Amino acid sequence: GYDCEIELDDRSPMRPMGKPVTRKEWRFQIQGPNAWAVIEKLHGGPLEQLKFFNMSTMNIAGKTVRTLRHGMSGAPGLEIWGPYAEQEEIRAAILEAGKEFGLIACGSRAYPSNTLESGWIPSPLPAIYTGEKLKGFREWLGADSYEATGSIGGSFVSDNIEDYYLNPWELGYGNFVKFDHEFHGREALEALNPADQRKKVTLAWHPEDMTKIVASLFNPDGEQYKFFDTPLANYASSNYDRVVDAGGKTVGFSMFTGYSYNEKQALSLATIDPEIPVGTELRVVWGEENGGTRKTTVEPHKQIEVRAIVSPVPYSRVAREAYAEGWRTAR
């Protein structure tokens, strides 16, 4: 019933093939323990620290830019954007202002790895593929939409797409749920008992098992395990690896996997049965069934069970001890 317009500003192609890249907007983030000092230097004076995900404006290089209160590193930070024609000037101003604070430009491969330490699962499967209420939405979606082109990867396999759906408590968003207003899906959430839902945790993968996976790349006569890319090992739009207990029972999903250089540890973000305490050793089934699916991101391989210790969210000690209270640190 809303009267609205949506304009899609596609992200820049990873391989422009020599063609000029033009967009409507540029988008940057300024994050880290010294982020606000950099931000206020750019702005030319004090700037109000808005509540999380609130929006405002600031000044950079004589221009007004839009801001979104963020905090990917736990400390206050901003996501900022403006007209694409100004992006080089704005980027240069940010890097110059940040020199005295140790600011560096983060590469595109390192950028998503911070979520492993801070505890955000960014890509669960959209729960839109079933149900009459969403039929119109599915018919409206284009063939090039995220929901149409997305892929599922990992060792958890089910013929029922709804087995991949997750609710807010399973993703660590339970404290966002408030029943003091009307919203889509309220009835379904009211029917759930939060105490019975799976919980978000970090899984710390065993170094010996990680060594075995990596070593298989250099053993032409032995087993070949699924390639573990660093710093991010995901190989599908939505990742669902089985997490099993000592008896082989599936107790959850490992959903976002990679390597933290800061912690010197292979990690994954997972959702597991609520009664399993921190410190329990579980196993992540790494790799796909029957030698792997036909996805172009999957090479022939053998599955392996990787020992993993149930650990806190956020995993990073700095994050646990120094982050502002929020949804990542809420218990």
Which helices and strands, and how do they pair?
Elements: E1 25-30, H1 35-43, E2 55-60, E3 63-70, E4 77-83, H2 87-98, H3 114-118, H4 135-140, H5 146-149, E5 152-153, H6 186-190, E6 199-205, H7 207-215, E7 238-239, E8 241-244, E9 250-260, E10 265-272, E11 281-286, E12 304-311, H8 317-322
Parallel strand pairs: 5-7
Antiparallel strand pairs: 1-4, 2-3, 3-4, 6-10, 6-12, 8-9, 8-11, 9-10, 11-12
Note the overall shape: globular
Largest sheet: 6 strands, antiparallel, barrel
Please trace the helix and strand order, writing H or E for each element.
Answer: EHEEEHHHHEHEHEEEEEEH
Quick one: how many beta strands? 12
Unreliable residue runs? none
Number of helices: 8
Query: What is the end-to-end distance?
Result: 37 Å
What's the helical proportion of residues? 10-25%
Mean pLDDT over the full residue set: 92
Structural class: alpha+beta
The radius of gyration over CA amounts to 22 Å
Strand fraction? 15-25%
Strands in their spatial order, largest beta sheet: 6-10-9-8-11-12
Question: Care to give the gist of this entry?
Answer:
By secondary structure, the chain is of the alpha+beta class. 17% of the residues lie in helices and 23% in strands. Helix 1 crosses helix 2 (87-98).
Describe the structure in your own words.
A hairpin with a 6-residue loop joins strand 3 (63-70) and strand 4. With 331 residues, this protein is α+β, with helices and mostly antiparallel strands. The protein is globular. The model has no long low-confidence stretch (mean pLDDT 92). A six-stranded antiparallel beta barrel has the order 6-10-9-8-11-12. The chain has a four-stranded antiparallel sheet with strand order 1-4-3-2. The chain has a two-stranded parallel ribbon with strand order 5-7. The protein is 17% helix and 23% strand.
